[in-house]
Design a protein that fits this description.
The protein is an alpha/beta fold. It has two domains: 12-89 and 262-291 and 327-415, Rossmann fold (3-Layer(aba) Sandwich); 93-255, no CATH class. It has 17 helices and ten strands. The strands form two sheets. It has an eight-stranded mixed β-sheet with strand order 3-2-1-4-7-10-8-9, with helices on both faces. The protein has a two-stranded antiparallel sheet with strand order 5-6. β1 (51-53), α2 and β2 (71-74) form a beta-alpha-beta unit. The longest helix is centred in the middle third of the chain and has 19 residues, at 166-184. It is globular and about 70 Å long.
Length: 416
Amino acid sequence: MNALSPLKLVPETDALVAREYPQVIKYMGSKAKIIDFVVEGINRARTNGPICDLFAGACSLSGAVGHLAPIVTNDIQAYSRVIAHTYLHPLSKRALAISPDEIVARASAEVLKRSGYTKDSSKYESSLSLTEFNQLEIASRQLLAENFNDSYHLFLKNYSGTWWSSLQCAWIDALRQTIDAMLQQGEIDKGDHAIYLTAVMHAMAYCGQGTGHYAQYRDAKTLSSMNDIRIYRQKSIASYFERKLRSLVKWNLGNVSPNHTHTYSSEDYTNCLKQIPPSTVYADPPYAFVHYSRFYHAIETFTLYDYPNLQIKGGEVVKGRYREDRHQSPFSIRSQVEHAFSALFDGVADSESNLVLSYSNTALLDLNSLVDLAFESFDSRYKIEALTMDHQHMTMGRRADRTRNVEEAILLVRRH
């Protein structure tokens, strides 16, 4: 064990209460619907140290309690670090002096410079036949083979005619260029920049043709699918961005406290655990056998804006247009999942923290197996318990008194 300051449980009178907060993207596995249950588990294990949200994702925990306690928000995906600022970073006075419509106006000038690439995007009319519609889609996708000279063409080059039209892609690029320029010119700070990028990610999610993730875009194979895709093609990235940013600014002013020092990181979970002080670690690792990087690679690419190599299969870019370097979580790989949980438990124990682990029955390991692994990592100074959604509270032994087949549970590991 590290020679760190001892943990003390926070009195029940100081229990956290989740607030309402704005959600910014469509996100699978979000804890927003059961956030009260999650916060209840945290209250049972909470210490006088910070709360470490180890797999923050869309940052529901920061949204719910970021005004009440210092948060270490971490996720291997860079977009999560950006989103966290929405709930934790007080907008600067400089940012508050700039209206969202002014940002849109600046970006509009950049979109005009790209008009040669987007001239067909205004033709998504209701009178189009299925054949005409697909001809328009194919014309947009021809930009995927285009050579661009300017430095902000990532979405025009990578995504035209896929989840977004060429015009929508031009707006995504132009907004990124405008927001970056504002940071470089000192008009906003890095936290403001992150909040603005989050508003763009929101617009991407709600204007993109699909369910909010980016595993594969849809093709117009029928009149019904054509009509549905056209609805999204006609949506305005600028309008969604401006409207969301206005609401985020308003919420930020009334809900983000400057009284806590928060930490933002994009580390592998094992590295994050090596760096934290004694904390209350909340862990919600990915439990599905599919990887989040497959579903959210587009917003990761928007966040990094790094012109990545795309995955090739059979000599062609795969339809999902995934990043070649996308993260593969060991929690989603059957041969690696036991080691991943052992590393998680060992990291919590080494940092002398308490653990609140969200468990779902979609996991590659059952709850009993998780408990067995926990007993291997935590010594007699720790007590292992579970709380289920129906509020059945269990003291977990190595063999007896287990509840099986629970859909959602919280595993509590806390020092006596």
